[in-house]
């Protein structure tokens, strides 16, 4: 069976929203005001990275055990057409971001993607997401 090569790259950032109580927010603002951090985002990013670093071994083992791609996995129309031509189906497993080009039709996605598991962000057209809804875990 022919191997299909897919491109992997890193994305800059994804926006999230969090709710904090006034005491936590005040303490963050105090640390920013005192010059420990450049801004609220800097403190929050640092705190998140420290937590992730403290669990790095567990993350590494889980990525290996679940066969996850770490980073960004991008699928173009030509990538999926090559998968279809080879008579294969993809099981997409990503820790980071998976994206499917906007010119990929829902039919092509259904013919080539067996399942999608994304811990992070999944970007695709609304039509492709709808067509794959039963395959997204």
UniProtKB/TrEMBL annotation:
Source species, domain of life: Bacteria
Cross-referenced SUPFAM superfamilies: Ribbon-helix-helix
UniProt-listed CDD domains: RHH_NikR_HicB-like
Pfam families in UniProt: RHH_8
Protein name: CopG family transcriptional regulator
Lineage of source species: Bacteria, Pseudomonadati, Pseudomonadota, Betaproteobacteria, Burkholderiales
